[in-house]
Amino acid sequence: MKRATFTLSAIGVAILLSLGLREALQVAPTEATMGNIQRIFYYHVPSYATAFAMFAVNLVASIFYLVRRHTPSAMAADAVAVSAAEIGVIFCSVGLMTGMLWAKPVWGIWWTWDARLTSTFVLWLIYVSYLMLRRLSVAGQAPTLAAALAIFGFVDVPIVYMSIRWWRTQHPQPVIFGEQGSSGLDPSMVPALLINLAAFLCYGALVFWVRYKLERARQELHEAQALHDIQLARAEAR
Amino acid sequence: MDTVRSLQHLHAAYILTWCIHLGYILFLVRGFVQVKREVEELKKP
User: Fold this and answer.
1) ipTM over 0.90
2) B16:A104 CB<8 A
3) Looking at chain B from residue 23 to 42, which residues have their Cβ under 8 Å from any Cβ of chain A?
4) Model's pTM, two decimal places?
5) For the segment A181-227, what is each residue's pLDDT rounded down to a tens digit?
């Protein structure tokens, strides 16, 4: 992506996010039962949607890496995987945090160990452990192990999504894509949700691109450092 | 249902969301600066 394209994309995303903020706080109607606190929904759901999209990218990149780990394209796949996981964790953290801030005034508690919240917390822990494995491991096998962990870790994503359909939970039943495709969301609230969904997904994609470039720069730096060390060792041996 | 506390929670959710995202952007910028510094060190004779 060229610098001008990136700048234009960043401006577009900033406009979309501003529109989303305005829709969520000013345009969308106030919910009858919960009042204004329900407006957290417009950040809570898009955050999780973006996190799930990033974890899906991480899954595809991890499979690609494992299949073609002896080819030059494997390094790019590894960079995609780690970038997507990191951004997924950021958005998942926002989802958890906004959920807790919403739960306290509505449920009277910050947290409960129901199926939805517990499976989401486990998902967050899986990807945090993935990133810790990447960061703390010194062995050359770290990307391979992390890719295997990512494949098993992604199993929790459909469990999180289906948890409110499979079990009785404190967390509300599905508001969108409910039973037989029904939606419990008032039609006047849909534009605010869709704009924020688009804004968060575009913002996530943009940050993902930046993080990917950083990872590729780090990989090139490590290769250059390794080459430099070999040249120094040879020079000293002479 | 709208109490002062619930409005505080609403504002906190929006502000904290952007604090987390801005913090992450700063973390990325710091990463680029660090890589650039290391590349320059590597180029030194």
Assistant:
1) yes
2) no
3) 24-25, 28, 31-32, 35, 38-39, 42
4) 0.92
5) 556 788 889 999 999 999 999 999 999 999 999 999 999 998 898 88
